[in-house]
Amino acid sequence: MDPYRRVRHDGRMVRLRDLSDAEREHIMAKELPRYDSTPFVEGPPLAERRVALVTTAGLHRVDDDAFSFVDLSYRVIPGDADLSSLTMTHSSVHFDRSGFREDVNTVFPLDRLHELAADGTVGSVADHHYSLMGAGWPPEMIDPTCKDLARLLEADDVTAVCLVPV
Prior knowledge:
- The protein is an alpha/beta fold.
- It folds into two domains: 1-31, no CATH class; 47-164, no CATH class.
- The chain has helices at 21-28, 98-102, 110-118, 139-155; strands at residues 50-55, 59-61, 74-78, 86-88, 124-125, 128-132, 160-164.
- The strands form two sheets. Strands 1, 3, 5, 6 and 7 form a five-stranded mixed sheet that branches. It has a two-stranded antiparallel sheet with strand order 2-4.
- The radius of gyration is 17 Å and the shape is globular.
- Residues 1-11 have low confidence and may be disordered.
């Protein structure tokens, strides 16, 4: 298996067991923060929440600036964006773009979110969503960006965020 290809020949994502020992060890050696499963704040039922997406896939509209290698900024994606107008400039050399190419909803499920709002599962879809380039920075470096995003989400009356870590 080509170590830089992360999709099986049948189009499905590989599992850890499909990787070489070196690749699997590299991935498993990464230190990840642990989070308590208790919500930060109480809130209304999901059917009453206004939901926004935040992805780390390095997505943006074609006319927006591309993400740089270690980029702490974000891009705004309107809630009514044509998903075919999005491109990806994620800088990680090991980042698998094949799912994005087949269906942008794998990394930015805006169509699915609109479906959930239409059937009443969620209250409404936010006017704006956000994309970061999720590689190259430790959590403490991205903290100011996250605080800025929190202010924007609050201004849009967002009461739930679907984080799509890629």
